[in-house]
Design goal:
The complex is a heterodimer. By secondary structure, chain A is an all-beta fold. Chain A has no helices and eleven strands.
């Protein structure tokens, strides 16, 4: 069974450009999450999808970030326009449900550098 | 609010040394506590967890005990190996938090032969 896969693994873009990150969760996982780690700091929650619906988007930093999960399968996270402070690692994760003992599986992350 | 504080790295040890990475938390109610590990070039992996006070999580020789009185969840291993070199993240999930994890800043561990 494939794990959580993210694309691209690395991206370098100029300030003001647009970048779209993609996440494919584990098959059958209704719950999909985005997190990010900037400048070696803590990993912070961005948002949580249940199927195609946004359950919690309280961690989205501003309206330059747009996350979608059309059809409840893969998800995209678009940053437009990108700023220098957006540089960091964007992690995607998925889980089958949200029960107490449930395991969340993370991808390898997408490394974004804005120059 | 909820937060996690863990010791700053990097932590550099020789093989077979004893490891402690400190983690303390602030939370409302009784959170679940986790240690995640990120090996070079890989994603975050759950290392161990504890869901209530005095629980001990263990895996791959690592242990951590949920201490409510000191709000701590320190990670320990009796004898580290070079293959343990990675970044370790302490995290909590607030009660009813729908798997919304709150992470510490991470501690890089380097183990030398």
């Amino acid at each position: 069974e494939a794990g959580v896969t993210q694309f691209p693994s690395h991206s370098v873009i100029e300030k003001g450009q647009t970048v779209t990150l993609r996440c494919d969760p584990i098959s059958g996982h209704d719950n999909l999450y985005w997190y990010r780690r900037v400048m070696g700091k803590e990993i912070k929650f961005l948002l949580h999808f249940v199927k195609e619906s946004k359950q919690d988007e309280s961690g989205m930093p501003n309206n330059r970030f747009l996350a979608e999960r059309t059809g409840g399968t893969y998800s995209t996270l678009k940053v437009q326009p990108a700023e220098l402070e957006d540089s960091g690692v964007y992690f995607c994760a998925s889980s089958r449900n949200t029960n107490e003992g449930n395991t969340i599986y993370f991808g390898e992350g997408s490394w974004l550098t804005v120059v | 609010g909820n937060s996690v504080t863990q010791m700053e790295g990097p932590v550099t040890l020789s093989e077979e040394a004893f490891l402690t990475i400190n983690c303390t938390y602030t939370a409302t109610g009784y959170p679940s506590l986790f240690w995640y590990v990120q090996y070079p070039g890989e994603g975050l992996q759950l290392l161990l967890k504890a869901t209530k006070a005095d629980d001990k999580g263990s895996n791959k020789g690592f242990e951590a005990t949920y201490r409510k009185e000191t709000t701590s969840f320190h990670l320990e291993k009796g004898s580290v190996q070079v293959s343990d070199s990675a970044v370790y993240f302490c995290a909590l999930r607030p009660p009813g938090g729908y798997n919304k994890l709150i992470f510490g800043a991470g501690t890089r561990l380097a183990v030398h032969p």
